Amino acid sequence: MSASQEVSFAFQPLLSTRTGRMVAVEALARPGQGGIHALYRAASRAGQLVQTDIALVGHALLAAEDSHTLSQDRSVPLHVNVLAATAARPDEIMHYITPVLRHTGRVSSSVVLEIGTPFCQVRRKDLLAGIDKLRAEGFRIALDGIGDGDVPLALLAEVAPDMYKVDSHLLAGLPDDPAALAMFEALAQLANRTDGRLAAVGVDNNAQLLALSRLGVRVAQGRGLADAVQEPELLQAMAEAATQRVTAVKPPRVTDFLHPAVMLPVNATADDVRSTLAERPDVNGVVLVDDKWMPRYSIDRSRFLLIVAGPYGHALHAKRAASRHADPPLLIDREATGIELLELVGDTDWERTADDVVVTDEAGRCVGVVRITEVIRGVADMKVEQAAALNPLTRLPGTDAVAREVDRRIADGHMFVISWLDIDSFKKVNDTMGFATGDDLIRSFGRSLVEGSASMPGVVVGHVGGDDFLVVSDLDEISPLAGTLLDTPWSAEGMPVAVSLASLICGVRTVSSYREASRLLAPLKTQAKAVPGSSWVLGRPGSDRVDVLRGRSAPGPAEAATA
Predict the structure, then answer these.
(1) Which of 46, 304, 468, 526 fits a 20 to 30 Å CA distance from 257?
(2) Are 442 and 522 in the same domain?
(3) How many CA atoms lie within 13 A of 336 on its CB side?
(4) What is the pTM of this model?
């Protein structure tokens, strides 16, 4: 306990890989002398390990009150670290932590206990029983150190935590290490099956963030991302990058669903709120605001009326402050999208997923509320539009998605490759074997493209119609993908089929738009189809040179020019 009194705390945000927005904050202990492991070793030698660990939890909760973000919005989940040996003693935790929760006004459901190593020093039966008790008290559970510590695989299944936190050692292998990719994919599937969330620790840049999003990792944490919370431009760029990768149709904005908010002063009584709700049966609740129109509390109609409309409810509560029966408001900026709002609701208390969300302007003032059910319908409609934009044969996006990806890479100043891929003499397949056979061939071709690029985070595939496909990739990705496609012996009911691939290497500032890239790519496609057999040709903007990387060059002037 005395050691923990010399410890300060840093608060590191956890960000959504889908939207780039903060979904939680972790309290990280920073001892005045030495590291946290040295503190634990000293406490263990003194026989005070569990007591010191519990004291650190309490001090983390108290320190959160001095954090501007957390003190202003207690609905932001606070992650605190707990040793496995401590989690096995829930009665001691509650004995010391309950008064702290009461003092800070924070509810247990907004606290996530990150249970970490070592696990070998506690009996699994005791740990599981302790976790069950802590959950019964309202705490959420995360398992920390997956991939580097001694977390038993069986424990992941038995606990089914609310969050699986993967150590930074695994992240270092992304996006090129196939073993790291396989591990993240397996953990993402486990998290989905158990209604948990997968988080990666130690993320340093946006490239890793996008790779994690592609793999189904919903939350990212790291020093490199901490500044994003304080930099609106970077935050917006992250949100747009995540949205552009998965969204072919423009997502609805929060303001598309805005309703006027019913607002009362922050010092309104319960009787004031009851009268207002009686006069306005069409609203779901009331927002309590201060004299600057800043939302301070949110009152849900159903929960409030259950309290004040029962026996003796009026006598007990009518003249007292309505804020006693209120919750911290769920807040979202009016520039946010409907998808970001659903992400916010998914990361809040489960009991409040039906609450209205308060929309604020740049100054934090209340401008209205949105209803979750309407946003869900709006996003569902967007998904229907998105599905309609996919090619019905291959379920791949069309030209628009590829155009956005190319224009994004040009705007970001990235080198990339755009490739045009099609099946030679496809009309002959349809005329000879029938349209059904041709459709089967296109489906098979599309599947091979998707499967071949599954481990390549920089690849975007589009089916632009008929037997034509477009591929956008990083420079080091096109060669292995081309090998996968061109080495496959394609056939349609026994009839051999050749494929042509034309690639344009777009260096930084060598093309100005998708339109220009497609114009330069068209003659390369013609030259690829002129090469006998399955072929691959490569060109560059501003150069007449065309490299034939697969197939035999056709005789004539074109061959001489190539030489």
Answers:
(1) 304
(2) yes
(3) 29
(4) 0.51
